[in-house]
Amino acid sequence: MGLRVENLRVYYRTMRGDVKALDGATFEVADGEIMGLAGESGCGKSTLSKSLIRLDSRMKLVAGSVELDGKMLPLTDHEAMNKYRFAEVSLIPQYAMSALNPTRKIGKMIAELVRSRGFSYRVLLPELERRLALVGLSPDVLNNYPIELSGGMKQRTVMVLSTLLDPSLLIADEVTSALDVSTQRAVAETLVQFRDRGFVKSMIVVTHDLSLVYQIADTIMVMYAGKLAEKAPADKVVKEPRHPYTRLLISSLPEVGVRYAERRLVGIPGRPPGLLDPPSGCRFRDRCPLAFDKCAEEPPFVEVERGHEVACWKAM
Amino acid sequence: MHRYFGRKSLIYLLTFIVAVTLNWLIPRFMPGDPVLRMLTRSSVSNPESLAPMREYYENVFGLDVPLWQQYLNYWSELLQGNMGISVWLFPAPVTGVILKAVPYTLALLIPSILLSWVAGNKVGALAARRKWLDNTVLPLGYVLTATPYMWLGILLAWSLGIVMGIFPIAGGYSFALRPSFTVGFIANAFTHWFLPFLSLFLVAFGGWAIGMRNLIIYELEADYANYLEALGTPRKLIRRYAFRNAMLPQLTGLALQLGVLVAGALVTEIVFAYPGLGYLILQAIQNQDFFLLQGVFLFIVIGVLLANFIIDIIYVLVDPRTRTGLQGGTA
């Protein structure tokens, strides 16, 4: 079952027109799969992950559908979608440090939250305490205010809270970007543990840190300028990428043991196109070293081998 | 906690001492001489009798000793609850004069401050989520909060008092009545109270409503509100949190506004010739009544300090972040 996203297009309404931040995404996430979603700023990865749980007031769903465990998600209907949020689709936000109401004790806030969703706090409490212990937190944190916890503790509390109702899909949005390296690793391992223990069935880990997501993800999907570029098992993406953008992205990562004083680390020249009025054809064409005439036509996102999809004419 | 309140009390005590000292100084720096005023009032024709009379009055008011002695005497008398004798209403003691005016001022101030705060917060919070209310409350609030108290008072007196004739426009009660605890007097005092109250209420209301509207919008955009929304929390709960958190800056605002509101009430009292402390201040200044002026100021200082102290305590009760700060001995 899992998640099935079909031709999803989400635009931002602005005074100057629609910004086509997500322009046709079709992919699946299988049960038990941890999918890393990578790409540079403005590539649409946050838009994609947000639109799966909550469209904010500026976002407009233009086309597409999202199916989770065989049920269509009513993305555009805020009230109807509430039933699925938290219980079926859940989110660990980027801002986990400030995600808790500062003037409520954490336990009280969780109680009010689950009760407002029609669940019993008393029934959930033993499981909540067990999971807090699992991430190394004592049940006492429930009697604390968020200000009394360290950043890492808040992050773990939010991770436990977000997955409390065993959602089918968990979206982890840049969860590690505000943490130091050792905590990053602990958080990443906790995510895997949550999947292994069945707290969540599948997971989308949004990040711009490819090296981190490589360690935990089963598959990695790379986005560029609002389009999907490549999706494949993590090993494949890192070791045998097919899309020129992915290749350049991987080659611009520093490697352990290489002294960059001798060999300069290269980036990708140029900048991604503006999405208010994106160019036709392949959107990476202007920066792509392999570009040729055919690239004026938009390449389809197709499977080039089992479990490996690429949107590039050269890869086919 | 003890340490926090100990420190706070010390600050309040220091403020009090400085305020009382200034209070004593200011009338003495004013131009004019109260004793001369008394003498002209009694219009003595014989120049020889002027000297003994001046001596008598200076003795009565305690002005025949050096300034430093006057200052010390002032403190010692004050601690015994004695604030001297009024020049304007000679020989009535200042304490009595003030105590007669205080109920009127309190009856104006307390309801207008508290009701405008409560109503402004409620209406502002509502405006933050209803477009039509936002489009009406916001401009109205800006106009109201920018209106000077006395000008609004004059407008109200003119429209509701003179043109429509619903409310009396001057005094604390009809001149035909004497203050007493009868239904008739209280009803009469109420009609006189209403317009000054309304003008104070409206001006303050506008400010609170705008503040609350902006704070609620800010809170609803905060991370915790977004997170709760992503978890499918009903809007009701999110709004409750936002309202509560937005109340904290409003509470601070109330503490800051108290002094301004008191000043506004004084001017309003003068517009409506309302027999409260503001009216007394005007009379005291016009009659060079040092002692009455000192007394009224002292009362206002105590009132503002007390109100701020209460808000300090409330703040500790409602905001857990200040409380955790206290444990570290900071703040």
From TrEMBL, chain A:
Q: Where is the ABC transporter domain?
A: 3-250
- Please list the GO biological process terms of this entry: peptide transport
Q: Which UniProt keywords apply?
A: ATP-binding, Nucleotide-binding, Transport
- Highest taxon of the source? Bacteria
Name any one GO molecular function: ATP hydrolysis activity
Please tell me whether the keyword ATP-binding is annotated for this protein: yes
* InterPro entries given in the database record: AAA+_ATPase, ABC_transporter-like_ATP-bd, Oligopep_ABC_C, P-loop_NTPase
Tell me the leader sequence span: none
Which residue ranges run through the membrane?
A: none
NCBIfam families named in the record? oligo_HPY (TIGR01727)
Q: What is this protein called?
A: Dipeptide/oligopeptide/nickel ABC transporter ATP-binding protein
UniProtKB/TrEMBL annotation, chain B:
Q: How does it sit in the membrane?
A: Multi-pass membrane protein
Question: Source species, please?
Answer: Rhizocola hellebori
GO terms for biological process?
transmembrane transport
Segments traversing the membrane:
9-26, 97-119, 140-170, 190-210, 254-276, 296-318
GO cellular component terms listed in the entry, alphabetical order: plasma membrane
Record InterPro entries: MetI-like (IPR000515), MetI-like_sf (IPR035906)
Q: What is this protein called?
A: Peptide ABC transporter permease
* Keywords associated with the record: Membrane, Transmembrane, Transmembrane helix, Transport
Q: Can you say where in the cell this protein is located?
A: Cell membrane; Membrane
Q: Which residues form the ABC transmembrane type-1 domain?
A: 102-311
Q: What residue ranges carry the coiled-coil annotation?
A: none
Q: Which PANTHER family match?
A: OLIGOPEPTIDE TRANSPORT SYSTEM PERMEASE PROTEIN
The family line of this record is:
Belongs to the binding-protein-dependent transport system permease family.
Q: Which residues form the signal peptide?
A: none
